[in-house]
Write a structure and sequence with these properties.
Blueprint lengths: L1 E7 L5 E7 L2 E7 L7 E7 L5 H17 L3 E5 L11 H15 L6 H27 L4 E9 L2 H10 L3 E7 L6 H7 L6 E6 L7 H10 L5 E6 L8 H15 L2
Parallel strand pairs: 4-5, 4-6, 6-7, 7-8, 8-9
Antiparallel strand pairs: 1-2, 2-3, 3-5
Helix pairs in contact: 2-3, 3-4
Amino acid sequence: MRFTSERRLDEGVLEREFTLGEIPGILWTPAAVSSPLPLILLGHPPLGLRKMYPRLVDRARHSAAEGFATATIELPGSGDRPRWAAVDQARADLRRAMEAGEPVSDEIVDALVLPLVEKAVPEWQAALDALLALPGIGGPVGYSGGVISIGIRLAVVEPRIVAAGLFAGSLVPRAMFEEARQVTIPLHVLLQWDDEGNDRQAALDLFDAFGSQEKSLHANMGGHTGVPRFAGDVAAQFFARHLRK
């Protein structure tokens, strides 16, 4: 991991951009660090870190106020990373189906999501290795938001992640429902009831499939980008319960 820039935000939060090989990322830490910090990995959709930055830094500030470090990395094929022809084609197929008012086929969903999961999850794990080796960051670790299938796979394969806050706002391949049954960590799942790009019943079925003994579903009225501000407060309370030593 190589840090490429550093600056203090208004609240004293330290923001450091880094690269991990070819992968860009950002780490935020609270102004005052008195003990090894818990860490939340901030997931996001594959729209690029530059486009997602305002929402990511808002989440990072909120988490810093709770005493957590947060970090994110650029997803494969997004932002300034090399284009990924197969995923670009799947995105184009998805757009065409939605614009035509046609059902989104399982083939499109699989082509769009499964390769991303296979490539992104090891990168998140490599980032986690590097982040936990830094002075002042000691875990426990949570995962928050982003492509829900990436969160599912991380919850299954990464034992250092002890709790996850997932957003039921992305298409889910059928194969991920079986993986969801293997998830056992505490879960906080957010569902926007009127999300125009999300199959509500599929989201409810996925929640039912999760194998966790502690799981909660928080549904709010509104579309994909209409998440109410208080939903962040509830998520913060969830992570405070599970990440504070």
